[in-house]
């Protein structure tokens, strides 16, 4: 079945109430951007939203490999997963506004891959080699945390291929034009054919900007 979610900036005092409203409207997910100079902290607001809801998925929309260490992200996600009763999702991209507003560049594809692999291993309770230091979430019992789905937001072909390799979910960020969606789907399908991964094991979606107005031109 298709799912529909809303991307909403985390806003202290409002996120939990609005999360309850969109759940009552029938939406399936709430995603809060992790962009520290433009909005509040997403994880605190998502945990408050978890307490105010019962069904919807809760996710960053998106986080990035630049502004938080992978262990910090994993710890925040594990906490949200426990607080929400298993409704957390790990949605990540290369980093745009979050990096630009502190004078840093987006993560390269290889950096994104390493970061996602580290977060995945932390969440599974495994040790992660951090430049010779054996690191893990010592407060988390290995295997005790329900799986947190990995969702990679993709714009270019390299990131789409990476997402097909690593993620549970792929979210295209290529606009709403049908020809752009068809192109992105083509790249994903080619990678699935190359690796032999079962298409049924991967959920595919898209970020779409939606503006309601009586005038199409405006």
Terminal Cα separation, in Å?
A: 33 Å
Taking pLDDT < 50 over at least 5 consecutive residues as the criterion, the unreliable ranges are: none
Radius of gyration, Cα only, in angstroms? 17 Å
H/E series, N to C?
EHEHEHEHHEEEHEHE
How much helical structure, as a percent, in the residues?
25-40%
Question: How many strands in all?
Answer: 9
* Main beta sheet: 7 strands, parallel
Instruction: Give the averaged pLDDT, no decimals.
Output: 96
The percent range for strand residues is 15-25%
Widest beta sheet: strand line-up: 1-2-3-4-7-8-9
Going by helix content, strand content and strand pairing, the class is alpha/beta
Q: What is the helix tally? A: 7
Q: Quick one: overall form?
A: globular
Describe the protein in words.
The chain is an alpha/beta fold and 218 residues long. It contains 7 helices and 9 strands. It has a 7-stranded parallel sheet. A two-stranded antiparallel sheet has the order 5-6. Helix 6 links the parallel strand 7 (150-154) and strand 8. Helix 3 packs across helix 5 (109-123) and helix 6 (157-166) crosses helix 7 (178-195). The longest helix is centred in the C-terminal third of the chain and has 18 residues, at 178-195. It is globular. The two termini are 33 Å apart. The model has no long low-confidence stretch (mean pLDDT 96).
